Amino acid sequence: MKRVTGVALVVASALAACSTNKVPERFHTLVPADAAVPAQAQGLVYIHPVGIPPQVDHAQWVVRQADESLLMLEQDRWAAPLQDELRGAVVARLAAKWGIVDVKGMLAPSGPMLSVHIDVQRFETTPGREARIDANWSVNSNQKGSDSLLCRSVIQEPVSEPGIAPLAAAHRRAAVRLADEIGQQLTAIRQGQRAACAQK
After folding, report:
1. pTM of the predicted structure, to 2 decimals
2. Position 39 pLDDT exceeds 70
3. What is the DSSP string of 65-115?
4. What's the domain range around 155?
5. Total structural domains in the chain?
6. What CATH code is carried by the domain that includes residue 124?
């Protein structure tokens, strides 16, 4: 009995040591901490759930290495599913910069309504190099006979510093740029102007 107790104590001590040395997980978000909401909405829109490539649709960060392989980082994770993080970042920027408010969870108005689909083709994180978002997105109206706008955004934010924090900041900047390209077209349509994809 004493021998069994001794073995149990050794195992318990080993587990305690492992838990003590465990590197804490870090959670990152694309939504800025200082996202402002306008006092009065200049326009309303419905942002559909965002499509994310399956290669990066994980809680853990997936980074591209020098040999083009992908590495999943166990200690660095998204605070929410990546599609929700990106959608939340776009919604926050549309409200803060363009005064356009997402109607998800609200009682949708019965009049004309614009909606946006975002389908991300590439969401790449390359340490010491860049954060990249390639996305197809469209603006549609519920008005019969209205034209749809289909655009593509290729956004690359350079990163020269090592570590994950600069990459997270670069992805936040990329999300802002994506939202601004969408917001510019939503505003043009709302004001009766001709909307057109940005020239690359």
Report:
1. 0.84
2. no
3. -TTS-EEEEEEEEESS-HHHHHHHHHHHHHHHHH-EEE-TTS---SS--EE
4. 27-190
5. 1
6. 3.40.50.10610
